From TrEMBL:
Keywords: DNA-binding
Protein name: Regulatory ArsR family protein
Pfam families (alphabetical): HTH_5
Presence of keyword Acyltransferase: no
Keyword flag DNA-binding: yes
InterPro entries the UniProt entry points to: ArsR-like_HTH, HTH_ArsR_DNA-bd_dom, WH-like_DNA-bd_sf, WH_DNA-bd_sf
Organism: Fontibacillus phaseoli
């Protein structure tokens, strides 16, 4: 499942570092949660979190999935989008394209910074738990899509800790971009060496 961010407003809404924290907190819950639950876990005021949840809801990254009457108050349960979030470059003029690129870079910087903080935190103790990998691989477009779909489905499958087996929480941050190395872009074959 994919969600495409197509407009500057959508990218601005998602790229806010505080909203990224809210999305991460919803993911950690592993179940639909109320704004109050998210606010409590972030040690924040519910009104502040509610404002940002409404912004995320407006672009489909958070959805209202249930309501319950609790002590005379309607509790609203939200769930985060379960899938890949992609940025689609639309037909903008050159000026708007520059702003679009700037907002996209802002979003990526915020995502990388949040992931970096969590990675460094995981490696501060006596037993480091973070794993970092960097590989150049050669794939067809279909294989690249298959890989991202598989990772996404694997993460969704293991989002909830609802088994009797003891499990630990791991944070996964995955990026994949088409390489720009001109030496390898045409062929993946070695030329025969001359005698």
């Amino acid at each position: 499942m994919y969600k495409e961010l197509k407009t500057l407003e959508e990218i601005r809404i998602y790229s806010d570092p505080y909203r990224i924290q809210i999305m991460n907190q919803f993911q950690k819950m592993g179940r639909p949660a109320t704004v109050k639950e998210i606010a409590n876990s972030l040690h924040e005021v519910p009104a502040k979190v509610h404002y940002h949840v409404k912004k995320l809801e407006s672009i489909g990254l958070v959805s209202l999935v249930d309501t319950k009457l609790v002590n005379g108050i309607t509790a609203k349960y939200y769930e985060p989008f379960q899938g890949q979030i992609m940025i689609k470059k639309s037909e903008f003029d050159e000026t708007v394209q520059q702003v679009f690129l700037s907002e996209t870079q802002n979003l990526l910087n915020n995502l990388f910074e949040e992931s970096k903080k969590r990675f460094l935190l995981a490696n501060q103790g006596p037993t480091p738990t973070g794993t970092l990998m960097n590989h150049d691989i050669f794939l067809t477009k279909d294989e690249a899509k298959e890989l991202t779909d598989w990772i996404n489905q694997f993460c969704i499958k293991h989002q909830n800790n609802d088994t009797s087996e003891p499990r630990e929480s791991y944070e996964v941050f995955f990026t994949m971009a088409k390489g720009q190395d001109p030496e390898h872009s045409h062929k993946n074959k070695k030329e025969p060496s001359s005698p």
